[in-house]
Amino acid sequence: MRPELEEVQLLEAYLRGTLPEEQWIDVSVRLLWNPDWQQKLAAQKLAYQALRLAGRQQLRRELDGIYVRLFG
């Protein structure tokens, strides 16, 4: 697998809290000392927030459509 994808998967697991303790410690240390990793983690958090917001907006539109069909 490409190193970039491995980093994304590692940071995703870190954010989800699913890393084994040894890997969690390794990633935590990298984040403390590597500004590049800090930026990548911040970007990944921002991307997840944007996806959640887009999902909520889509759900709201669908629910509004259902309401209109049911009530009018």
Order of helices and strands: HHH
- Count of helices? 3
Give the N-terminus to C-terminus distance in angstroms. 52 Å
The count of DSSP E runs of length 2 or more, i.e. the number of strands, is 0
Task: Name the shape in a single word.
Answer: elongated
> Structural class of the helix and strand makeup?
mainly alpha
Largest sheet descriptor: none
Number of domains: 1
Please give the share of residues in helix: over 70%
Mean pLDDT: 91
Low-confidence stretches: none
What does this structure look like?
This protein starts with a helix and ends with a helix. The protein has helices at residues 3-16, 21-33, 35-71. It has one domain. By secondary structure, the protein is mostly helical. The mean pLDDT is 91. The longest helix has 37 residues, at 35-71.
Keywords, separated by commas or semicolons:
72 residues, mainly alpha, 3 helices, 0% strand
